[in-house]
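Thought: the user wants the 3D structure for the chain below. I'll pass the sequence to the structure tool as-is, report back what it returns, then summarize two notable features.
Action: structure_tool
Action Input:
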Amino acid sequence: MSLEITRKKDGSLRSKWWYGRFTVNGKETCVNLGIEIKGDVPKNLRKQGNIAFECSRTLADAKLKELTEHAHSRKTAAHHLQELYEIKSGEELTQIALAEMAEQWSLLPTKKKRCALRTDNQLTTIRQFREFMEATFPQASTMSQITRKMALAWMKSLDDMGMAGATYNTKLSLLKGIFEKLGTEAGVLTNPFNGIPFHETNTMHRQPFTQKELNAILAHCDDLIRPVVLTAMCTAMRRGDCAMLKWESVDLENGFISVKTSKTGELAEIPLFPLLRAELEKLPRKSIYVFPDVAKMYKANLMGLTWRFKKAINDAKIEGAVIERDDAMQKASVKDFHSLRTTWITMALTAGVPMELVRRVTGHSTVDVVLKHYFRPGRDAFKMALETAMPKMLTGGGTEEQLDLPKEVLELGKVAKALKPEELVEMVEALAREVARMTKAERAAAVLAA
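Observation:
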């Protein structure tokens, strides 16, 4: 244990503070004692200085003794903790350094294969937690040294950043789970994150695009992202699944895409709509990926795709893409790339596509997830779907639906009996020519009318 001062080459003071050096458990430590050097400083600390200098030396020496005793008491407490742990578990106490926490967590077994994007986010949270502890509580270097006070300070720092409730809860759940699963190996007797309450959340669901908005977005996409956006529109696949789509998953002959979703690992089977099929048939097969440049960007710079899609939304002048939220400083994005998935599901369910077929396309394992997070019909679409499906006596007063068809089609049954055979043939031929000029929807209506 010794006192030190720092000098420049010319002998003048480099710092006005006293420093102390001590050794605990074989580890040498040098700290700023926070005591200012006063008076005339002798050339050598073995010599005495004036009264002011010796007074500051005495204060520094007392501070150094206090720190040394505290460090030794922590060593004794750690020794007692180890003995307690060994008595309770019958095993020798081991430690996991905060610097090793991410690696140890990644080695834990999981029920399903880890999602790459989610894993990156979790590793970022672990790194941020470690850096916070190094800066705020440098004395804590292992998981067993993290106290509840430290855990609460970390969570408060997230609040101070104005973090959304859902993000706050995700980080709390991750750290709580890490200390729970690694606790035994790390010598953690009490999980410091236990009992910290989760925040109430105000979930902002993505909103579907209208058909007009979809056309506008496509028109403003650059050449790189346009085919990816079109794929998402036609398949309801997530951004990562679209960007990393491989040719082996595309069956142009039978008109299907079959791919395991990156998030859930469930198999999604998606019919190829003619619009998308025509787009894919034009693409060269120069890589295992359908969109090789996009796949490269997705791996190296995910925000590049996000920026391009946001630019297309802004250029298309899509209204209501972001909204204010009460539980966070940042605005919530309710119309983004993932909204293409919401759009597909909403349009399919509103049009009467059975839930089981929708789940087969999206890869969702439960109906609840689809209805809670993705089925977001607008009020007009919702009203029209109900009016179409419900009995007329409830929705409009019992009158039959009037079809916009040629008058001759509607009155064919009445006049057919009064016509001669050759006149009937002429009428049918004329109607056939009329029907040929009708749209697909009008022909379908004519069949229903018949």
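Final Answer: Structure generated. The beta strands are 2-4, 17-24, 27-36, 250-251, 256-260, 267-271, 322-323, 332-333. The first helix runs from residue 51 to 89.
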